[in-house]
Amino acid sequence: MWIADNWKEYQVLDASGGEKLERWGDYILVRPDPQVIWNTPHDHSGWKKKNGHYHRSAKGGGEWEFFNLPDEWSISYLLKGALPESETAASHAETDGLDTGRSLTFRLKPFSFKHTGLFPEQAVNWEWFSDIICKAKRPKDRPVRVLNLFAYTGGATLAAAAAGAGVVHVDASRGMVGWAKENAAASGLGNAPIRWLVDDCVKFAEREIRRGNQYDGIIMDPPSYGRGPKGEIWKMEENIWAFIELVTQLLSKDALFFLINSYTTGLQPAVLSYMMNQAIVKRFGGHVAADEIGLPVEESGLVLPCGASGRWQR
Question: pLDDT, tens digit, for every residue of 280-295?
Answer without folding.
Answer: 999 999 999 999 999 9
